[in-house]
Structures are given as C-alpha cells and as structure tokens.
Amino acid sequence: MATIYSLYVINKSGGLIFYKDYGSAGRMDTNDSLRMASLWHSMHAISQQLSPISGCYGIELLQADTFDLHCFQSLTGTKFFVVCDTGTQHMEGLLKHIYELYTDYVLKNPFYEMEMPIRCELFDIKLSQAIQKDSVALLGR
After folding, report:
1. Which residues form the signal peptide (predicted)?
2. Mean pLDDT of the region 48-64
3. In DSSP terms, which residues pair with 20 in a beta bridge?
4. What is the three-state SS of the chain?
C-alpha cells in the first residue's frame, strides 16, 4: 500500500513555511521538521553547484531503503517535497498539483505575507482532499 508520510514547503531562503504529517509512525516534533527542511534546502543547493551537467535544478528524487523523497522546485525557488513509501509512482504530478493549490489558495490570499508560515484554512482543506484522493488512486494501481 502506497503511503504519503509528510509534506514540506520551504521558502527560497530555506525556511520551513509549511509542514504536514500524514503518517502515524515516526512523527517528528517541530525542531526535527525545521532541521529536516534546512538540511534538504542545503543539500538541494549543493547538488545544483556540484552537478557536472549545466542547468541542473537540484535533487528531484532521493531513494532510501525505507522511504522516497520527491521534490519539486518552483521558478521562485519555493520547494515542495513529499516523503513517501519506496517506489511510489506519480509523485511529480501530485507535487505540481500541490503547487497549484499553493498558488490558488495561499499566494492569492490577501492576508498572506510572502515567505511567512502558511496558515490558510482553505489551503489545508484542499491539500487534505488532494492527498486523500491521490492515496486512493495509488491504492488502485
């Protein structure tokens, strides 16, 4: 069964602006999630500089024994990454959909300040619906 464990949104300067935990095992506290976001931002930036291929946009997939980490970076430098089961397919599409939700419900919110933590109830609702819909779709594959 394919499972999405957590979702992170990191601003262009490496600050964690959104974190949502979807798994019951291995929950992280606030400090751990901040460290994870900072570490990922740094690894992503270093991978861009170390790449032997010009035009590299950083790490898009990190595969480990027990999880996969999929990342999508927007043109503004905001990074979205999902920690999920190993071998989970079609995460790129989910991350792009999450980015669309971010642009529709966060960036268009007149009360949201750029680069600040995301506290938009409608974004949370639509995000939960998208994750649940994707999880159900993954079960059918």
Report:
1. none
2. 87
3. 7
4. CCCEEEEEEECCCCCEEEEEECCCCCCCCHHHHHHHHHHHHHHHHHHHHHCCCCCCCCCCEEECCCCEEEEEECCCCCEEEEEECCCCCCHHHHHHHHHHHHHHHHHCCCCCCCCCCCCCHHHHHHHHHHHHHHHHHHHCC
8 with 16: CB under 8 angstroms?
yes
Average pLDDT over residues 40-47: 89
pTM (predicted TM-score): 0.86
C-alpha to C-alpha distances, 73 to 24, 78, 84, 136, 139, nearest whole angstrom:
27, 6, 17, 25, 26
Q: What is the mean pLDDT of the chain?
A: 87
Domain that holds residue 113: 4-139
Rounded CA-CA distance 75/68 in Å is 23
Other C-beta atoms lying within 10 Å of the C-beta of residue 66 = 8
Whether 17 shows a pLDDT value over 80: the answer reads yes
Using alpha carbons only, give the angle 73, 103, 74 rounded to the nearest 5 degrees.
15
